[in-house]
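Structure representation:
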Amino acid sequence: MRDGVAQIAAQMATQIAAGDARALARAATAIENQTPKSAALLRELGPHAGRALVLGITGPPGAGKSTLVDALVRAIRREGKTVGILAVDPSSRISGGAILGDRIRMQAHHADAGVFIRSMATRGSMGGVARATADLALLLDAAGRDYVIIETVGVGQDEVEIANVADLTVLVLVPGMGDDVQAIKAGVMEIADIFVINKADHLGAERVEQEIHGVLSLRNRADGWMPPVVRTVATEGAGVEELLAAIHAFPRRRGGTAISRREFAIDHLGVAVKSIEAALGFYEGQLGMQVSLRETVPHEKVNVAMLPAGGPRIELLEPTDPESVIGRFLSKRGEGLHHVALRVPDLNAAVDRLRKAGARLLNEPQTGAGGHRYVFVHPASTGGVLLELIEGG
């Protein structure tokens, strides 16, 4: 039987999937603040996600990213598609919240029900995005948005975390900023799937494009994609339709030769313990962590306690029967790491791919703690670690 937190999360997930804008806003706040119910909510939302195109817009400060996003959203809405925007702003030194510069520049969309805009603060995170960005992208995906656009705070050569969150990354550059290749460093160059030269009516645009093509000629991508270079003047809407066409042309395929960078993510680490209460003396009492979910899974003969640890979680597993899987594990090996769980958007597709590759699966996909679907892969196929695949965003 579900506990109160899980029931609230399930109800909120249903409201979000039904298009309730207020529930969506409340959920975004809970996830960004990492409240106790946020982990349970993300688990409920997982099966609803995996359909949106998550688009990262990055580049140096002053490149016109917000203006370009505004123009791109207009083009997307003309196609009848819906959009969720995550504008990652610098943190206020006073409140710790976002300085809402990007959201102010997109006020033209505030009355459009097909556009949801959320400003979020970096809160000290490096890499151009905030720690909760991936979870908020999953939320907007589960809410039925066709596109989720993440605008970073502005990158340097080592701030490339957006590539781990987005399906497709657009790097925005501009001419006339002194050194034209200041943003074309190894790290940032490698994450770009599409290059945009914004403010292309300014002197120096031709030179920037030549430099981009020169760098691209020195490397080959494993997926065979050659990143196009698109010139735009975002303030006039020029080149935006061409950018959208390039986005549509990007080979985003799941279960085939091209695999999304968001396909796999660590969901949790399963730790076998003799007593959950004893273990919580350390996790809650000494570390100050909070349990987000407690549940008994009868068919697995195990009690479960989930503790959020940033994005991933720690799952404490206590046997209710000494002859259960966890009970036998404890008698043979003692307390410790039992398994690693990865989250995948399409469990059936992942299972089919593993079977074709000859991997040894320990069960058919079934429902476990928190209502998620899962399958276990034998350590003989994974290099010695019991691996759990969980369906989610």
